[in-house]
Amino acid sequence: MLTVVLQQGINGIVVGSLYVLVALGLTLIYGVLVQINFAHADIVTVGAFVAYFVTHWLSGNYFAGIAAALAVGAVFGWLMNAAIFAPLRDRGNELLPLIATIGVSIMLQNAMLVLLGPIPYAFNTPYSNEVIRLGGTFLTVQNALIIIVSTITIVLLYAFMKFTFLGKALRAVSQDRETAGLMGINPNYVIMLTFVIASALAGMGGAMLGPVLVLTPFAGTSVIVKAFAIVIIGGFGNVEGTIIAGLIVGLIESYTTQFLDPGWIDIVVFALLLLTLAVRPTGLVAERREENV
Amino acid sequence: MSIVTSRRFWLVVAAIVIGLLPAIFTDSYWRTNLIVCAINVLLAIGLDFVLGYAGQLNLGQSAFYGIGAYASTLLITQVGVPFWVAFVAGVLLAGVAGVFLSVFAVRLRGHYLAIASLGFAVITYQVLLNWISLTQGPLGIYGIAPPPPFAIPGLPPIEFSNLASLFYLTAGFAFLVYLLLDQLVRSPVGETLTAIREDEVSAASLGVNGQKWKVFAFAVSSAVAGAGGCFYASFVGTLVPDAFFITESFSILAMVIVGGMGTLIGPVLGAILLTVLPELLRGIGDLRLIVYGVSVTLVVLFMPGGLVQAARLVAARVRRPAKVGRDP
Amino acid sequence: MTGAGEILLRAEGLRKSFGGVQAVRDISLDITGGTVFAVIGPNGAGKSTLLNLMSGIYQPDAGKLTFSGVDMIGMPSHRRVRHGLARTFQKIRLFKQLSVLENVLAGFHLHHQIPPWQYILHGAAFRRDRERCRDDAANLLAFVGLKPRAHVPAGSLSYGEQRMLEVARALATAPRLLMIDEPAAGLNAAEVEALLGRIVALRARGMTVVMVEHNMDLVMRIADRILVMDYGQHLFEGTPADVQAHPGVIAAYLGAEVR
Asked: Given a cut of 70, is residue A275 above it in pLDDT?
């Protein structure tokens, strides 16, 4: 029994750390723009497919697949900002960009459906079948890789935000765009950069989620709902909260699969979301944003 | 006010058109589409009330639609209550679900409600899929009877087993809901909801309880979707969870956006256009949702008022013809 | 009903801090009905925060606040409006897409005297209510000089007109105390004179006005009492003459502005 609990704990952390990668992108964008990119999870799906095809073309070079997914994600992020968010920024209606990205999401999903078909792709990397044993539990090399890569990425991102000039600029813009402008930071550049980073993370997350997910053009939908739940539970725009909430959701997913039924995952996550909203409307870690009246 | 611009004139025209449509389209294929149109109109104006007027994005319409459909059907088949009782119960249950959801989320800024409602749509779908003892899961419920004949004393009973009278029932109901919402938005209720949409802090400074009114708008929108679900079940005769996947929410959203949110006539036009157009262009079957996605994105970027805004621009151009080329 | 001359709004020991910065520390004040009460002080002195505490946008960390004897602590801003508190905003918050008239009509939210089913049926009572609101709105627009602009979008008004529309909209709630946050900001000299006349007219009707303002000339000419704030604290309170005679206040803020 203990072994099962431990084993599912490991699985939960594997998936959870990938959800953190995806949710961090959403929360970064929300932090600087107070906007939601609904197509964010479809960039995850795109990343997964790019990694799948590149890995296969290069006969099993999974790292090339990850790099390609990261690059394609970055390009998508730049496009999303240039085509949707930048033109709509000064319309003064906060729902318009959200609705436009829902349009983009429908478009991307169904374009992929036409191109790739509805049948799930079996994405096996060279590391999917190598197993490391730790006592009674085991871990595929693929999963170990996921934990290592996502931890490094999260630490690097955290360090970038805390210690580099660009990271500080990003935080300055998220706190007060006008003041940041006065400090000589070009907010448009910072926003563009945020989209590129966030979407590159999504693409990379997709490359690593691909082997774990049921890889279809609609894979993003199940991811986006959990990612949204994570950012709300963690507190929108809050990096630490997102990391904690992402791991919690990953653990919920693996334990629900083990002890209840996979069909219950979304229900349990959503119940937790409602509970969070009821108890702490600003998330586990409070949203630090004062309405300027 | 000239007769052409008066509201009553157009309402009468709309009623006459509804009356004539089944006479024009006599084959069952097009009559089926007419009913689908009427249900979509209902769903679209319901969403527009909360989105276009109160400024809150309800992505849970597919769930409320599904709740209305399953609740009324199960009440009829399992409990044996009469159709119209089940109808009222389905509408109320969808409305209550909307209230339940919005009570959690309205304390927060706009985006949270959109996400919470999306999450609600996903879990409702999962429940319909996984609660097999109640809903039969993916197998679905078959052989749902149409509404019972409607007896008016002194007249022969109206049967709903044929498509024409089923169309009159759904379109007539959609027309009634349109009238109801139109009266509401042209009353102080409309002023209040619009104030919340424009600036909630400012509205509160005028005594508006934003939370209460958002819950109200959400409840109305959900209940209307629930009514759509009841009609859907009795018209199709079959219920499967896939009919209430979140893509349905997005389709309804597309109808509202393309038609023009914040007006009631816009979503009506949008619903009709986006229902009929894919049928006319049969070849694009697979591309239907791509067309929805592209049109939503393009409309938001270039014509945020949708068809209604486009029509107004054209009307202004016609009334005041371009002066190009008049001067020598 | 509190008449003129009685204490209408009383604050005791109000405190509010944001992330460790104390925006308002230990402010107490009594505002007498039928007077103009001005709050002055340098930028960042906590004047707007004080107004936000009084109108209910923020809740204080500590302190008491009563309005005509009713405890206001914990009461959300929309409830306070029912008791007769109204306000305008420093950063103008009109419903920009709506017409000037519609902005004022929205202010009648609490004053429709028709049963809910009239909202659907639009009977005779509904039409009477609508006529009454339109007439009242027209009067309010005339009062602030915007009647000819009733049907243009609020967003297309000039800056000064927008400030006046906010006043008209706040007055539509039929307040007993009107809080105006920097009403003269961005107004030209003629507009300031008109504003002054309107505030005087309101006071003559028994309205209590609380005003946060930087225009010292306006404040000195119109205020009955002035509260001077600095770093969130109470620095001095008195009549305009007292304030002008107070050496510390003059040295700190008024030197250049009051001759």
From this structure: yes
